[in-house]
Amino acid sequence: MKKTISTIALLFLVVFAYGQSNHYLTKEEAPLDTTFIGPPPAFGTLLFEQDFHMYQYGKTLRDTERGKQAIKDADTSTGNLLEVFSEAFGMSLSKERTPEIYKLIATMKEDAGSYATRCTKNTYMRMRPYALYNEPTSVPEDEEGLRYNGSYVSGHSATGVAVSMVLACINPARQNQLYKRGLDFGDSRWIVGFHHYSDVKAGQMVGALVLPALMNNKDFMAQLAKAKAEFARLAR
Fold it and tell me: pTM of this prediction?
């Protein structure tokens, strides 16, 4: 019995620690986007027609280089995020080479991709385009796990913009390249077929609102300072 209790307690501590390490913000501190983002386009509206035509256009890009990049962008692991943003940052980023930047991005990315978008996702539970049209995506291994997860707003798109803004705080000389890459990261979602175009645009706007909340967090600011110092050393 004591062994069972100890095991349960240990598992609880691991889960608790894991949850704590993956966010700087609490759910209440993150932007509650439902209050200002509004609902997704309704069936029959011109904005819904735009979503449909952008979905069709996205399918024509899937066999191109842009389509290949969109597949890679589907991975929001910290290692992949650093890899795909390295060119825009102007320096190779990785857990081994830039551990302080890695820690910063690993801890803040879900403040944007989960906390800042979850409320709206759960409110509207919009059907994803591949499910709506009963068609395959270009990342089939992700389809079943996301089929019943709300499409509006796009967490990937919020993550892309928020990460680009944090990286621009570290390397402001590359801000324009980083902002473009952040937008492209989100646009990959309507190309692969996991989001409507309006999901992506709304997600990008929400992502831009995460940084001010983060800048009021002392732990984020302390790690940002370490990340800036790390970059300054490597950039000499």
Answer: 0.90
